[in-house]
Design brief:
Elements: H1 5-16, H2 18-21, H3 28-65, E1 71-75, H4 81-89, E2 94-99, H5 102-106, E3 114-117, E4 130-136, H6 145-154, E5 156-167, H7 173-178, H8 180-189, E6 209-213, E7 218-224
Parallel strand pairs: 1-2, 1-4, 2-3, 4-5
Antiparallel strand pairs: 5-7, 6-7
Helix pairs in contact: 1-3, 1-8, 3-4
Length: about 240
């Protein structure tokens, strides 16, 4: 009999335990340097369990705007899974991959493009440097999601696009209770959080959209340069 998805997730968490026993979890860079060898397996399972619809929505947005020569930043690129999708959609996109973890970035060696170690809270690029910024499952790991998205908006041009997915805190009690295991994995194993509405970088207008999936556990957001998000989360 095929194991349940929750059982598979529990088994994967058990396999990852040795990565965390040697020393306490530190900042996100430290965590992802350590989980890099096993990250692709977890990512595949995450998409199969809950993350797939949100990421597919992002890919649909990308298909609508990518053109030959588009300057694309994959912010928090991880092992390059999303960057490979960008190249599959538009092989002539001019891709830059950035991640705070050198070990994660090292696993993107097969992806054509520039790459650099960088924190999404302080991107080392001038204003209006890119046409598109994509960021999958990143802003929940950096401590200040609003600042991260403000940086994404800063580095796109006037006609640019920002697309990002993240773990979001579901509102209903049933979804909240049902997502306990997933939230535990993200929060304890991957230095992340499920972002509540009061800390969600978001601007409600005709230039943007927000799509929620799996009872609100995951979210995909699209913004334009002119979207005026909050500059800091509430204290």
């Amino acid at each position: 009999m095929r194991p349940k998805a929750s059982d598979r997730l529990t088994a994967l968490v058990d396999q990852l335990d040795h990565l965390f026993r040697a020393r306490p979890i530190g900042d996100a860079r430290d965590v992802y340097d350590r989980v890099a060898p096993s990250y692709d397996a977890f990512r595949t399972l995450w998409l199969a369990l809950v993350g797939g619809p949100a990421e597919e929505a992002m890919l649909d947005d990308l298909r609508a705007v990518l053109r030959p020569g588009s300057r694309v930043l994959d912010a928090g690129c991880g092992t390059g899974a999303l960057a490979r999708q960008v190249k599959a959609i538009e092989p002539d996109a001019r891709l830059t991959l950035a991640d705070a973890s050198p070990e994660m970035l090292r696993r993107t060696h097969d992806v054509p493009g520039e790459r650099l170690v960088a924190n999404v809270l302080d991107l080392p690029f001038p204003d209006s440097h890119f046409d598109v910024v994509v960021s999958a499952w990143v802003i929940e790991t950096v401590g200040n999601p609003v600042r991260a998205v403000a940086e994404y908006l800063r580095v796109i041009g006037e006609e640019g696009h920002v697309f990002y997915t993240f773990c979001s805190l579901p509102g209903g009690w049933l979804s909240h209770a049902g997502s306990t295991l997933l939230r535990s994995v993200i929060e304890r194993r991957f230095a992340g959080e499920f972002i509540g509405p009061e800390r969600t970088p978001w601007h409600d207008c005709e230039r943007s959209h927000r799509l929620r999936f799996q009872g609100g556990v995951t979210t995909e957001i699209a913004l334009k340069k002119c979207c005026d998000i909050r500059s800091e989360p509430p204290s």
